[in-house]
Each structure stands twice: as C-alpha cells, then as structure tokens.
Amino acid sequence: MASAAPAVNSGGNSTASSTEDAVRQATLKHLLAKIQGGDASPQEINTLKHLYPEIAKTIDDPSRTEVSVKEAVITEDGKIVSPVTGKPLSAAEIAEIEPPADAKPSDPSEEVETPEETEVDPEGAAASASGTSSLRAAVSGGKWKMTHITHTHRSLLGDTIFKYHTYARFNYKGGKVRAWGKRYDRFTNEADVVDVEKDRYENRKSKVPASSATSMMKRKVKLCAVGTISCYATLYPWAKVQVFGTGRTKIAGSGA
C-alpha cells in the first residue's frame, strides 16, 4: 500500500492528507469485498492491481489455480512403478508421491463415510491384478495405487499464495476398489498472510468395496494482516479423487 503523504506544517494540507487516506482505505475495503464476493468487474480488479499492487500479490485468483497429479502403482511383486509406462520409479520420484513426515494423516474419528458408489470405469475393462503389497492394510492381494494431488493457489499478479497437497492410497482388484489406505493432507509455500485452520473443514471417503470410491478433503484458510486490514478473505480449498476398480483415477478440486 502506498505511503501517506509527508507531514507538512499547514493544518489544511494535513487534513486533506487524512481525508485522502480515509478514501483510499474505503476504496480498498470496497474492492476487497467485491472480489471476495465474486462479483468484481475486470475494471475493479485492474484498479486494485494498479493502486494496491502489494495487496494484489496476496489476493487469491481461482482462475490461476494450477493442479498437478503424481501417481504410482505397487505391483504384485512389490515394485513401485509408473501407472503410465509400467517402469520402476526412482527414489526421488517415489518421494514426490509419498506424504512427507509433516503431512497430517486422516483421523478416523473425523471421517464421514458416504454411501457405496456404483459407477464403473467407462474407459476400460476391469483389471485382474493379483499379488501382495508391503503397505499396511486389512486386505491381501490386488494392487495398490498412491495418488498425490497438488493445488497451487496464485494471486491476481501470479504470485504463489499456498500449495494444498492431498494424498490417498487404495487397493483394487477384479474391477473393485477393495480398501482405502492412508489419506493425508498438508500445506506448503504459504505466504505470510496465510492462516490455516487446524482442523479439516471436511473429510469424506465412500464405502468400500465398490466399483468406484471417492476421497475428499477440504480446509478453511484465512488471508490476514495486510496493512490495517485484519483478515480480508476466507478460502475453502478442497481436493477430490474418484478411484475405480481398474486403477484409474479422476481428479477434481476447487481454487477457493
């Protein structure tokens, strides 16, 4: 935000400066309210970028949200391979898929189980995988798949505000999703204005075994402490992965 005009001896100029600052504050609050409400015009957004570039760096722009997905499959002989090429993954590639130590595991007491799904994979026949896995779960045989989804939230000026990561594992065989493995989420690359609520806003997974199943996590994030404005925006980033008995996955998520 631009600095106030230098102090001068003239009382009239000082009053004018105070009035100007008050107008700028009112304008800023108005623009932020319009943007958070989703009804700001392109002209109003450009006004914010021009008059308050430092603040525009921290205003979430859902149209700029980027999504990336990394996945791996555990074969019946225990190898971790690419689901696309079938080739073994390197230790570095596996590390990008597995949740790190600071990822927050799903708490069974907070999970909401949704009804069994009946949708089948429209893109392929059921897989007939068999074998074992070193991953801990209450099933044996079948294949395991690991999924890491990253939503990168960017500002009106393209700066990274935060990255929201979600991780899920599932077991599949014979056209059925047979079990969920561990599920996690975490934040990285947070700007100074980011305040993540400790508890998850939503944490759902559908009942298995089933022909398909869905895992969904959602968080509450406040953007706070810009100038004299305390918290100026509240976001609800979420990520969803639908998994099929063939091993295929379908990703969804929200920028805010």
Describe what this molecule looks like in 3D.
By secondary structure, the protein is an alpha+beta fold. It has two domains: 11-51; 58-254, no CATH class. Helix content is 18%, strand content 38%. It contains four helices and 14 strands. The chain has helices spanning 11-36, 42-51, 53-56, 91-95, and strands at residues 66-74, 80-81, 104-105, 112-114, 143-154, 160-173, 176-188, 194-196, 202-206, 212-218, 221-226, 229-235, 238-244, 249-254. It has a six-stranded antiparallel sheet, with no helix packed on it. Helix 1 (11-36) packs across helix 2 (42-51). The longest helix is centred in the first third of the chain and has 26 residues, at 11-36. It is elongated and about 80 Å long. Residues 1-10 and 126-138 have low confidence and may be disordered. Residues 108-122 have a biased composition (Acidic residues). Residues 1-22, 95-133 are annotated as: Disordered. Residues 123-133 have a biased composition (Low complexity).
Summarize the structure.
This protein is α+β, with helices and mostly antiparallel strands and 256 residues long.
Mean pLDDT: 84
Topology pattern, helix = H, strand = E? HHHEEHEEEEEEEEEEEE
- Number of DSSP strands? 14
Overall body shape: elongated
Report the uncertain regions: 1-10, 126-138
Radius of gyration: 24 Å
